[in-house]
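Format notes (please read before filing issues)

Several people have asked whether sequences and structure tokens are stored in separate files. They are not. Every record keeps both together, in the order shown below: the sequence lines, then the token lines. Line labels are part of the format and must not be stripped during preprocessing.
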Amino acid sequence: MADSEDLLEGVPEMPEGKIPIQAPPNQAEAAGIGNVLAMVIPMMGSMGVMVFMAISQATSGDGQSKNPTMMMMAGGMVFAMVAMVGFNVYRQVSQHRQKVKTLRGEYLSYLAETRQTVRNVADRQRAFVNWALPAPEALVAIADQGERVWEREPGIEMLNARVGVSEQGLSMELIAPDLPPMATPDIVCLSAMTRFIETHRNLDSVAFGIPLEDYSHIELAGRHEDASGVARLIMTHLATFVSPNYLRIAVLCSPERLAEWDWVKWLPHAGSTVESDAVGPARMVVTEVADLLDLLGPDIVDRPGFSPRDDLTPWPHVLLVCDGAELPATTQLGSPEGAVGVTVINLHDKWGALTSPSTVRLLIHPAVKGENRGALEVNLFSHQAIVGEWEHVGQAQAESIARRLTPFAAEDKSKDTDAPVGRSDVKRTVDLMELLHLGDIRDFDPEKAWVRREGRNRLRVPFGVTPEGIPVLIDIKEAAQQGMGPHGLLIGATGSGKSEVLRTLVLALALTHSPEQLNLVLVDFKGGATFAGMSSLPHVSAMISNLESELSLVDRMQDALKGEMVRRQEVLRDAGNYANVTDYEADRIAGKHNFPPMPALFLILDEFSELLTAKPEFADLFVAIGRLGRSLSIHLLLASQRLETSRMKGLESHLSYRVGLKTFSASESREVLGVPDAYELPSLPGSGYLMPGTDELIRFRASYVAAPPPPRTVSSTQAATAGTPDRQIKVLPFTLAPVLTRDEPDNAPASTGQAMVLPEDAQWADMTEMDIAVAKMAGKGMPAHQVWLPPLEEPDTFDQLMPDLAPVEGLGFVSMQWRERGTLVFPMGTKDLPLEQRRDVLTFDLSGAAGNFAVVGGPLTGKSMVLRTFVMSLSLIYTPQEVQFYIIDLGGGTFASFVDAPHVAGVATRDTHEILTRMIAEIRGIIEDRERYFRDNKIDSIETYRRGRAEGRYDDGYGDVFLVIDNWASLKADFDDLDMTIGMMLSRALTFGVHLVTSTSRWSDFRMQVADMLGSKLELKIGDFRDSEIDRNIQKQIPNARPGRGVEVTKHHVLIGLPRADGEPDPTTVTEGIGRTLEMIRAALPAGPGPKLRLLPTRITADEIAQLPGALAPAEGPAPALMLGVEESRLGPYRLDPNVEQHLYLFGDSKSGKTTFLRSLAKEIMARNTPEQAKIVSVDLRRASLGLVPPEYSAGYLTRIEDVASDIRELAEFLKMRLPGDDVTAEQLTTRSWWKGPEVWILVDDYDLVVTSEGNPLMPLQPLLSQAGDVGLHLVITRRMGGVSRALYERILQSLIDLGTTGILLSGNPDEGQVIGRVKPVRAEPGRAIVVSRDAGVFRAQLAYSDPVR
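Then the structure lines:
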């Protein structure tokens, strides 16, 4: 008897094959006398020589004993030899016996192992036979359980009925070995082998049956009681396993025996298809032949002569039992030949010889008293009789079986045809709800209809009918569970109804299985019309369409399906290492674990050939599903217009069932079904062939669900309205005789086929049957596990990424959850994880080595939006005192809305070059100051500083500083060497909490020094996917024209969020959203905005410079330091130490501040020195500084070239006298005490006017320039910018350059090129200078201003 656990474990299989038996070993040969002699004779020879020698030594020449010891030795040698010979003989005999024992033991052990194998085969054979032909005692349980009721489909042994048990051969043949003629096998082993084969060749008491399709007559000969019991066994056995669509049962008996057959009325198979009464179809149990012929109908009565059933034999098969009555020989049914598709069982107590080959006679011998079985002989016309034991079913047991089969009866109705069931009509179609026996779709209640289906009924549904009106079912279970699957193929040309068949299959499965048992993945590679409207089904785990236009989704779907396979494997492992979902579900229902249900997953993919054309590697996933689908309960149905076997990669071996609709050509039909029949199908949508895993083809036409439901009828509404006040229940007797009722004309019941309309049907007007079904099931049952999440389309905002955003006392408008996640851990958007079937927040962590961030993408891919999101994310987590942003916006002004943001120190653009360079200088100063701060406070790392700052122990005025550069390529191209300056800063920036955040269009835009520092990376869509540094394949999958879509370092697709927290996901209004978000941040600031970028002043005086920190720092020598201006790195004083730097040269355009610089320098010299300490020589050909230097400080005011030449020559001669002589000591060199007098400052304005074609009047000073520190000489030259590139080769300037003199560039034309080193002049305000110092590097400064003399 089969129970649900047996079904879950699978259907037994008949073992097949052969079991060869090894030949017994040959007899062990005993050692012969030759072996003994071969050992004894040499020993005797050698011993004889030794004895002879011993005797010779023991006796004298006269024969008398001379040495008795030698005689004893000779005797001992003889004894030893005899003992040795005896021992060797014994040893050889023992070895022979042991060899024989070993050979026999090994062979008998082999037979014992083979015996266990044979017993296992026998057990499997009995299990299979008992499954196919269950014992009479099991029929009641099978009918009551219902899982195997009417399970047989047209095919071999469909009408095989059990009649008893007999001795049958083992299904796997035992092959005896071929022994050579001269073989000498061991007699014991040979005897054991012979007994083994004879014992196990046959099995006792194995069930056997009679195939009704091969016989027109079956004679049951024996006592009436025994014969009727066997007849009842045949009838109940077939009624249990064969549907009334394929089998009809009728009884013709004598009146006195009618009561014995009263139980037959409960069989659904006994109902007439042409006659009915008040309680349904007329019962075909009669006593008159005329009544029988009327009930059978002309379709059966007029059938031709009998022939064994084949594909052309009509259905249903008729089993006619004659008990005490006979059919007239004038009818085809009563003729000895019989009728095709009809088997007549005659019960006889007398019989004669067999005369027809289509007749089989069962001789039923009485059973021994106390036994339920008796001897049975099965006599055939031309075959040897089969001997066994008969079995029977009693009347009470037969009625019990029949009553349990009654609820399975259903009325089959055909639409679009006038042909009755059984007559072929290719246009025949049946409404799906009628096939499923669910009544009218408008009355469908999923809560009631979704009863858990087990065993054979699970995943098994009808979806169409044959031309004869017989339902065609598809069973996607694996073959071990009586199914056709688990994987299949559907091929149909355009217009064949392929999409409609798929919709019908989906709807049939959804209507009969709850989401707890079945989930669906519906994929349409082209468009989305096939499964349109089905996304609301609670069974749908994934609805994927229109993949052709966006191939990147194909790879995403591949990851999603792989993820589902991995998820199921992990659940099976975690629940207890289950081998398959079947065992998992069985134990879950039994309460052995509390894990969630794991429904079967049915994956339907339309247009899969086009998918494989676009993505050939997808076939590997199909093969993986085909290989693992059985254990993971994943079922696959691939549909397409044509089959391209070249792209299948072995997938076709996993497709067990196939559906062929009308194909484009006969060859395509032959590829799918093996025959060209599908090409010859009529042009009727939904017509096709089903090949259920065998060579059998089932013709069908699928139901149509994309049309309005058929009109409501009384029969379809009875179940829903029975018992209501307007329809009272009437109880009628159920007898063999016709049941008649009399109703009043006004109250006459409507015909079951009469159309009717209910008021509530109005809501379903203009809806198709599929739409109504989906609406009925939407939101019901357990929601399906989502395998597929929608693609990344709508970006998140920060109120979604940070749901706890709110004003917090002492912190402002921040997210506490993200603050608690760790330092500099922040969200940026959404990460797509299809393999894990979920989405995660895209998170970056800049607290460690990955502290620098870069985003790369093509034009209009959202790079600037990424940087804005970056700034906004950190601004919503940390206070303005904890993070500061310095932004260089070279991307078109996208950061304009952040100019006044509390966290933003400053925003520089392309046209604010001064702010840009000041920003770089400020950050460089922050790094240098922080390095000093760390050293002074013994801080070992930025982590220590962050922790101490949070505790209030440290604070240098800054938190983590971010340099944000939008468009690195533009920075590199438009600002010479600025990228190198930043690169040098990066080498130690992270150590002191300074981070680089930048964007560009290609990774190659970064120099290697910078690229190695970028630990956090993000790629948007780039122009050439081959330039990707993350993954080229994934980069190629990023869709075009989707700003914000990209891939991050873990190779997952991402969608960057919008930098706003107002809940509006519209990217076109992001500027307004940023403004509102910044206003919320600003309104909740606890300590005001963060530090802002300090710029160089446009004008500053020496007195103001003197007030700055560090202005009064001592110089490194006797001469005091001079305040020249304000430097940009710390906005501190720019000082000139004459003890270290004796000279200066300055270039600038007109009105750039050259003369003002000399004027300020002169005033600073006079303010810091007495007339005895410093003298000034002014070379001022334009008299711009006339009257500036008072007489006590002036050593000359030269306005003519001639005066310059003569005075400078004299001055040079004077200074030469200060050169140290041979008597100067080392101490004097150190203190410069070998001469006394003032320092001489030569201030040359308009040097280009001084140097003429006639010569340079300052040439006498050239030899003294290198020893200026020893003689107290200071030369300061200013020159206009025009032509400076040529002037640099002038000898005085060349000498200054060679001495490493500091040069200053004021405003000038960049077209002059590189002037000092590699520095080009720039347009700037008056007094704004670029200082090029060998020691301090290149920096900007604002030179001191002084009012003109007049």
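For reference, the curators noted about this record: The longest helix spans residues 68-132. The chain is about 30% helix and 20% strand.
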